[in-house]
Amino acid sequence: MLNINFVPEDYIQSNESRRTNLMYLMLFGIVMAGLGGSFMTIKIRQRALSAKEGLVNAKMTQAKEAVRQFEELQTKRKAMIKTALTTAELLEPVPRSVLLASLTNNLPPGTSLLRVNIVQKEPKNAGRGVARNKYKAAKAQKAATEPKVSREKLLETHIDIEGVAPSDLQVAAYIEQLSSSSLLDNVALVESKEQEIDDTAFRQFKLTAMLRKDVHLTSEDISRIRAKCEMATYKF
Fold first, then answer.
1. Do 157 and 211 contact (CB within 8 A), yes or no?
2. Does residue 23 lie in a domain region?
3. Number of domains in the chain
4. In 91-186, which ranges are continuous DSSP H helix?
5. Which residues span the domain enclosing 83?
6. Distance from C-alpha of 193 to C-alpha of 171, rounded to nearest angstrom
7. Can you tell me the distance from the alpha carbon of 2 to that of 207, in angstroms, rounded to the nearest whole number?
8. Where do the H-state alpha helices sit in 112-236?
9. Do 173 and 230 reside in the same domain of the chain?
10. Whole-model pTM above 0.85?
11. What does the angle CA 75 – CA 77 – CA 82 come to, to the nearest 5 degrees?
């Protein structure tokens, strides 16, 4: 049986063209959607990376600030340690009140103090040049390699003592007591002369002494010396 197609070929071609164009449009839409999705994904990742970069920069800034503050604290700490060491070197190894109490505790009966003068001086041999002979030169070279001692630690504490006693026996006993003290050294009699007041004769004496090197008292020693001084004052 013969099939006869009454549809014009132009119409058929037109439908096929429309279907082809529609397919192309759909493919183009899919490709554009894919490109748009990729673009959005890239943008989101860029924003996430930018946010992470901002956090890293903020942490680095905080770390730099923390390092700067730590360095400032270290500098202040070193300055404070240096100040504390200097202050500790300038502090008297024995408080003057304790030294006066020790001088009072050793007074024989009937003896009293008139004046006490405490002065810090440099040693007499301080500031001399290097010795000329080989022994002293080698000694000086050895001393140069050792740690330097601060000027304050080289100072010597000299004590001038004036007082009155019934006789020279009390003066000699006082010198003996001071010589056996753990605080004093080089106790010497400078002068002892007779004085008379209201028909009463007594001896006025002058002594010199030095504070021992590297003397360090504990709080118990200081309390004991002060308590003994208070008892002696009360009895007097």
1. yes
2. yes
3. 2
4. 96-105, 134-145, 151-154, 168-179
5. 7-91
6. 11
7. 158
8. 134-145, 151-154, 168-179, 219-235
9. yes
10. no
11. 95
